[in-house]
Amino acid sequence: MPNFKKLYEKSQTVPSSTIYFDKKIWSLDRFLVSNEDILIINIEKTNSQFRQGFCIGVEGVIKFLDKKYSKGKSIDFFLWERKEPYEVQIFTESLYIYVQNAWYDPAEGEKAPACYVGGREWLLHDHWGGAGMIVEEIENGKRYYCNDGECDDDFDDIIFTVTRKPYKIST
Asked: Which residues pair with 30 in a beta bridge?
């Protein structure tokens, strides 16, 4: 089974990517934004023994449920699988945010750290080498077909979309 972690090490791109059976596999994705954009994240499907989610990396602040979150200059903000869409607002001077999938290992218990590419658990353990995403452009956003850390190549552990909420123009 593939270990994308080892293939990313050969990558000359940032974020890292590799070609696997004619498909580009990304470690994470840069998603173009403007300051104060409102993003809608919809989880379409999960199919894993691990709890699935995603991480939004922002140089700035994230507003979620009327509360602003920041941690120094940048923040990795995690949200976990559920049926209802998420709505977050981005406050940044950067041209993009980072989007990537994340998961929890149930063997680690409820206090387990989130696993994601670049995170401590991913860096320490080669058995998480399967993490990657196939990214599809859609109207006003992107769809992510994700592999959690298991070394397989089904890319259906979590499938989600990130789209920009249309601005309401007041008259």
From this structure: 98
Number of H helices, E strands in the chain: 2, 13
User: Nearest to residue 167, comparing CAs of 24, 59, 34?
Assistant: 34
Q: Is 9 helix (H, G, I), strand (E, B) or coil?
A: coil
Q: Quote the DSSP letter at residue 115.
A: B
Torsion of CA 9, 143, 105, 81, to 10 degrees: 160
State pTM to two decimals: 0.91
**Helix-, strand-, coil-residue percentages of the chain, each rounded to 5:** 10, 45, 45
Helix (H, G, I), strand (E, B) or coil at 120: helix
pLDDT tens track for 53-71: 999 999 999 999 999 999 8
The answer to whether the beta carbons of residues 121 and 111 sit under 8 Å apart is no
Structure tokens at 159: 């499938």
